[in-house]
Amino acid sequence: MIISRKIFHMLKNKEIKPRNDLERAAFYFYLISTSFGSSMGQFAMSKQRAPKRLCRDFSLHTKRLKNASIENKSFEYILKEYDYNEALFYLDPPYVGTENYYKNTGGFGLKEHELLCNLLKNIKGKFMLSYNDCELIRELYKDFNFKELKVRYSLNNNVLKRKESKELLIMNF
């Protein structure tokens, strides 16, 4: 797949319309893969490294996700529809304080954070949930297992200037 500022802007400005859901997903993948911080805001291409090989990425993802189900549905629907004793859910909801980063989602506030927690308390399967480390999340999920993770977000090209943050991996096993 060619990496191009012109294609990026044409997709972003909806000058090229997807003909179906598969094309819509491919356009979305292109935009997040070629934008700064996967924000779809500005085109970003490294000046030091070779361009990304998006086709290779598709091939890697296809192999890894061979037996996975991918849906574009609410977490309520997914947890209800796919829950059974052997299920494993990995959830990565909007982090507390970053909810406004997600455009056109209908919002994800305190009510949704609490609803997700209540649903997870009652599933048959297992779950792994990633969140930012904050008081609200520690209180909501206090009955579950926590693993603290130190992460460095890779938006800054200078490795030494990357900010270290703490995240939580929360599990019911």
UniProtKB/TrEMBL annotation:
GO terms for biological process: DNA restriction-modification system; methylation; mismatch repair. It holds the Pfam family MethyltransfD12. Keywords: Methyltransferase, S-adenosyl-L-methionine, Transferase. Signal peptide: none annotated. Gene3D superfamilies: Vaccinia Virus protein VP39 (3.40.50.150). One of its GO terms (molecular function) is S-adenosyl-L-methionine binding. PANTHER family: DNA ADENINE METHYLASE (PTHR30481). This is DNA adenine methylase. It comes from Campylobacter jejuni.
